[in-house]
């Protein structure tokens, strides 16, 4: 728990749909009434007002016991005291004697606000008067404080303790067991390795946040290898559930969803420290959709941003490798001019859209980066195949023209009024281009007859969108001629495999 800095051992259990966190606790395995605490706890808890932290921690008890015997509250030093208020009076900084005096003079009815001792040692949860370890044993195994756990009745194993030589017939027996504490649904869940409010990565740890906001707190592992194994396993199950939901959405609603999932958006605030925010991306039909929360029903229109896939460019920043520790790999694709990437960044990619806008996202695993790269390539290819042609208004030498990209014929430019074609070239005839980064672009084509280079200078209102669209059509055209091209261009996947 990062807020309280409390740490405790847990055991994880992963199923297809759930991540279960188990905590060790003391349970009665034989003797006595095993169900009595379930019947009596509600009546005890109803006598107290609880704060927002948690409920009152009550010990197991018998119905014949009084309320004073049943509920264990610690009135100790103010830093560890469980009682916070008595009849509305804050006693957190009062002395022990002051709190005792206030309790004794509070009257017949007392309203007590308590602090839940979340991780009190297990032996404190034993019923009052329960049999402890044998008095003739003085070894460490006979002490309930041994290794911060519980070795009851002189038994140091997790099995039921052995009976004394002359046991009582109804003497209860206790043992430590792993009990389910949190069951977190993995459907549309997300994983985060970043420290709260920063872009810095946690070391060998992460947290899982469910769709409803419930989280595991930070799960700290002994080695990077263990952390990576669990990260990959949980991420795989989340992705599998997402794929199943995509199939359902495609069946219920159209158009087709190519890929969707959680990403972390990195925000630059000038001189301010970079911030990050979680976003849910979906490649659906002709659009890249950006959500603050997953569209679990039919609320696809609630996207905070939408971009046409033909006018979107996907770029990978760099890769990391997970070995015995996280190793940053200086692997750039020549896509960042300044190359100023922070050492703490995970697997990052940029989405470049119209008017020069750029969004930087990151995922937790290299396998996720591969999925997003291939998904973008597939989604763009499918969209180009669907639209077949795309036209933009432009100007050249004072004339208003219509610039057209056609999947079959290539480039063409026509008069916006008469629709008469002025010039036309195939995709293979484009030999180069240059632009001013604002509105003007020069396209260099090779004449098929005399092999001379011919330059066409055009001006567009949204030059970035046009250049991205040209890239999408050429990539789709090459992929049609050479199906292996798409996989060969996946440098992320190729590098990860070679590593």
Description:
Pfam families: Syntrophin_4th (PF23012). Its main location: cytoplasm. This is Syntrophin, gamma 2. Residues 153-172 are annotated as: Disordered. Residues 155-170 have a biased composition (Low complexity). The protein has 499 residues and is α+β, with helices and mostly antiparallel strands. The protein has 3 domains: 29-74 and 117-178, no CATH class; 190-386 and 489-498, Roll (PH-domain like); 388-461, Pleckstrin-homology domain (PH domain)/Phosphotyrosine-binding domain (PTB) (PH-domain like, Roll). The chain is 21% helix and 32% strand. The protein has 8 helices and 24 strands. It has helices spanning 36-45, 67-70, 96-104, 224-252, 366-387, 463-481, 484-488, 491-498; strands at residues 11-14, 18-30, 83-86, 89-90, 112-114, 173-185, 190-192, 205-209, 219-220, 257-269, 272-284, 287-291, 305-308, 313-322, 326-329, 347-352, 358-363, 389-396, 399-406, 410-415, 421-425, 430-435, 440-446, 453-460. The strands form 5 sheets. An 8-stranded antiparallel beta sheet has the order 13-12-11-10-17-16-14-15. A 7-stranded antiparallel beta sheet has the order 21-20-19-18-24-23-22, covered by helices on one side. Strands 1-2-6 form a 3-stranded antiparallel beta sheet, with no helix packed on it. A hairpin with a 2-residue loop joins β3 (83-86) and β4 (89-90). α5 packs across α6. The longest helix has 29 residues, at 224-252. It is elongated and about 105 Å long. The chain starts with 10 loop residues before the first strand and ends with a helix. Mean pLDDT is 74; it is low at 34-71, 74-80, 132-166, 320-344 and 491-499.
């Amino acid at each position: 728990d990062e807020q309280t800095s409390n740490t405790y051992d847990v055991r994880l259990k992963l199923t297809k749909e759930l991540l279960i966190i188990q905590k060790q606790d003391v349970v009665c395995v034989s003797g006595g009434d095993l169900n009595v605490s379930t019947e009596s706890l509600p009546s005890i808890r109803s006598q107290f007002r609880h704060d927002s932290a948690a409920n009152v921690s009550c010990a197991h008890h018998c119905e014949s016991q009084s309320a004073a015997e049943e509920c264990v509250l610690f009135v100790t030093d103010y830093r560890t005291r469980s009682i916070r208020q008595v009849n509305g009076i804050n006693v957190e900084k009062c002395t022990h004697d002051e709190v005792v005096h206030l309790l004794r003079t509070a009257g017949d009815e007392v309203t007590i606000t308590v602090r839940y001792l979340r991780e009190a040692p297990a032996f404190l949860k034993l019923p009052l008067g329960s049999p402890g370890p044998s008095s003739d044993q003085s070894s460490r195994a006979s002490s309930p404080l041994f290794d911060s756990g519980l070795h009851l009745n002189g038994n140091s194993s997790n099995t039921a303790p052995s009976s004394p030589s002359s046991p009582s017939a109804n003497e209860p027996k206790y043992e430590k067991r792993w009990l389910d504490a949190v069951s977190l649904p993995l459907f549309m869940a997300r994983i985060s390795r970043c420290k709260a409010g920063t872009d810095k990565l946690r070391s060998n740890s992460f947290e899982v946040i469910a769709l409803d906001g419930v989280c595991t707190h930070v799960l700290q592992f002994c080695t990077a290898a263990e952390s990576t194994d669990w990260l990959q396993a949980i991420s795989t199950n989340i992705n599998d559930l997402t794929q199943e939901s995509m199939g359902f959405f495609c069946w219920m609603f159209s158009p087709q969803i190519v890929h969707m999932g959680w990403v972390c958006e990195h925000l630059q605030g000038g001189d301010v420290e970079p911030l990050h925010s979680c976003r849910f991306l979906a490649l659906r039909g002709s659009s890249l959709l950006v959500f603050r929360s997953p569209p679990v029903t039919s609320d696809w229109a609630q996207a905070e941003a939408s971009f046409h896939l033909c006018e979107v460019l996907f770029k990978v920043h760099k890769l990391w490798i997970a070995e015995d520790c996280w190793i940053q790999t200086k692997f750039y694709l020549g896509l960042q001019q300044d190359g100023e990437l922070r050492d703490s960044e995970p697997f990052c990619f940029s989405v470049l859209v119209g008017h020069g806008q750029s969004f930087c996202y990151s995922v937790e695993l290299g396998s996720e980066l591969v999925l997003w790269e291939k998904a973008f390539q597939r989604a763009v290819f499918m969209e180009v195949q669907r639209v077949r042609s795309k036209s933009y208004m432009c100007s050249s030498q004072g004339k208003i023209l219509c610039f057209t990209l056609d999947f079959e014929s290539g480039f063409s430019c026509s008069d916006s009024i008469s629709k008469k074609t002025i010039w036309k070239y195939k995709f293979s005839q484009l030999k180069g281009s240059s632009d001013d980064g604002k509105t003007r672009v020069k396209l260099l084509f090779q004449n098929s007859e005399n092999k001379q280079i011919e330059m066409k200078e055009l001006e567009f209102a949204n030059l970035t969108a046009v250049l991205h669209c040209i890239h999408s059509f050429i990539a789709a055209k090459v992929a049609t001629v050479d199906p292996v091209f798409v996989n060969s261009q996946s440098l992320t996947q190729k590098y990860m495999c070679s590593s």
